[in-house]
Amino acid sequence: MTDHQAISAYHVSPESSLEMLSINEMQWLIEQAHGPQHELIRRCVLAILNSGSELDDAHEILNMYKDFDVKLSWQRRGIRFELINPPTDAFVDGEMILGMREHLSAVIRDLIYSPSLYETGHNKNLSEGRKITDFIFRFLRNAETVNPNRRPNLVVCWGGHSISDEEYQYTKRVGYEFGLRGLDICTGCGPGVMKGPMKGATISHAKHRNKDALYLGITEPGIIASEPPNPIVNHLVVMPDIEKRLEAFVRLSHAIVIFPGGAGTAEELLYMIGILLHPENQSVKLKVILTGPKSASGYFEQLDEFIGQTLGEQAKNYYEIVMDNPCLVAQKVKRSIEKVTAYRLEKNESFHFNWLLKVEPEWQQPFNPTHESMAKLNLSSDQPIHQLALNLRKAFSGIVAGNVKPDGVALVKQKGPFVLKGNHAIGESLDKLLKSFVAHHRMTLPTRQYKPCYRIQ
Question: What distance in Å separates the CA atoms of residue 207 and residue 202, rounded to the nearest whole number?
Fold first, then answer.
């Protein structure tokens, strides 16, 4: 990143999104953008303009660009963004880089415009699972993410933003194998595992002259400010919260591959296992593979042991571990997608949005990690397995918030670490896993010293 230099302002027009609006829609959009959500929009847009940055601290980014601001205005040919004192790296000879312009438009679309398409009263009472899933579908459809003209080939890749170089190179090798087989890639859109598979696939897609390759990034407001989208993402979606983000991942996916990571990766795995443990999802065809280089064997052994100790051996049946074999991973994923396609054809099910998947409302309601809500989590084995999986997922979600999300980081600074309470066996297993994440620099970038945002009681 170059040194920040004060400049006046750049005027930018939307790209891909928000290009066709009526005058009334533009005026409404401007009012909303300058209202209570303005600071959130400013943070997310600043993150977009820092795409490719090695920073994972939202406060550090904001402090570097205190005088940055974004305003919206309209002209008869469309909406216009005014960027005041933005990072100069976002521009080349006075013109904004096209990918960043697309992401900028996506942020405004998803923070303001997309939610407005759903009836306000209905949107405020999203208590029924059916309504929430319907909202997610409409949100994704408005973002042109649900595309019936694409064949089923979307691989969701989960994993950490703080990984070793060897692990990162491995994700590129797996992505390369995916691209050779014409598979599209979806990640959380940030650095590390969220970038590697996409970067690897760009080469193999280029070999096949595949100009329509999809590199889908799905994020949410609390994450994007700390993990700016990587430059390879060519389709960005900002879901309203982490729960809708997770559901979007699983309903869009045709296979899921999990690489090494930290608390966020554990949260994603627990979410997926908890969903698949539901009795109504026993027939769901969705391959979940855990993979990494040989050096990451210990990581997956610990994660596998943690799942067995907390959720039981049955839970381990919902994923497969394949070590140090990118080609085999891609072959298994391709075969699995063929089975998924055949199954959905048999059931007359949508190829691009998995309506058959049962997701209970409790899994869909946003969890706000505070000291009170974290302390109330039931982390004991005296409850149904799927309920324990839900509470463990929330615990990891709170740790992610305390690590990187601005509001969570601020809470921990103000009141100290979150306190997690559980019975001895689960607490001991959780503590062991988290300590291993810390020891192997999986909680933050290797250049930063990690201070735990949690304490296990």
Answer: 9
| Domains delineated in the chain | 9-116 (3.30.1850.10), 144-346 (3.40.50.450), 361-456 (no CATH)
Which contiguous run of DSSP H or E holds residue 439?
helix 424-439
Q: Which pLDDT does position 6 carry in this prediction?
A: 47
| Cβ atoms < 10 Å from Cβ of 129 | 17
Q: Is the pLDDT of residue 319 over 90?
A: yes
Express each pLDDT in 119-169 by its tens digit. Answer: 555 555 566 667 889 999 999 998 999 988 888 999 999 998 888 999 999
Q: Three-state SS across 301-331?
A: HHHHHHHHHHHCHHHHHHCEEEECCHHHHHH
| Element holding 418 (H helix, E strand) | strand 418-420
Nearest to 370 by CA among 313, 426, 411, 410: 411
Q: Six-digit token pair at 134?
A: 């319907």
Cβ-proximal residues to 320 (8 Å cutoff; 6+ apart), any chain: 287, 288, 289, 290, 332
What tokens does 426 get?
């689960």
At 408-446, the pLDDT tens digits run 989 999 999 999 988 888 989 998 998 888 888 887 666
| Closest of 363, 147, 183, 151 to residue 273, by C-alpha | 363
Residues for the chain: how many in total?
457
**pTM for the structure as a whole:** 0.89
Three-class SS of residue 156?
Answer: strand
